[in-house]
Design brief:
Number of strands: 15
Number of helices: 3
CATH topology of the largest domain: Jelly Rolls
Order of helices and strands: HEEEEEEEEEEEEEHEEH
Radius of gyration: 22 Å
Amino acid sequence: MNKTLTMLLLACVPLATHAAPGGSTVTFDNGLEGWEAMQPLDGNGGSGIDHSLGNGAPALRTAMENFGISWTNKTNASFVGDYTAMKGVTFGIDVSTQSIRYFNQEVTRNLVLELRDYDNASNGLPYTSVWYNLGTLDASKPGWQHLSVTIGDTSATGLPSGWGGYGAEDASGMPYLPADRTFASVLASVDEIAFTTYVPGQMYGFTDYDIAIDNISVSPVPEPAQGGMLAAGLAGIAVLARRRAARTA
């Protein structure tokens, strides 16, 4: 192989292997991998892996009566820890809403991503968190929907557009991020990740849920400089390949 071409290839390899830790996708092919669903209040219903419903793989299906429903993970190191170790990160989940019934009528609910820090809780609340409304769950729209959000800068101190905070409450009971915490300080100490229909600050009635989730993912966002260097390297390889082909011809 041309020596210059070899050097370009080697220069590109570290860019692909030095991604920030934490990238992972749970398809439920290998079990729950730390994901749990809350239990029903009346003992009826529950959660389990459904091998007939998955979006390209088995799915975690939850059917129960409760005020809301949550899927959480505290033990999988790919989903908890210091997210500021990544410059940016994308969270994704596939959801299939079979039914959401309130007083025997189909209704919709929002699905929230919440990143929770239990180690630095105050104000009498169990944890501090930042959260984002991913979208609406609606049984009238069958099939799978992909919901996601990207944090472009994990070092941001203020809440990015669309994000809310939890850890303190105002006089009306509405939650907010405490003054001594920042967006980045919560991201630096995530003890639990949750996908939940409980939107902080909202009240709910007893509801029947039948929802499946699949392909839960967390993906580091490549830094622009790395992407540019990789593109330049690949372009250089292409030019050399064309020159070699021309010389051969």
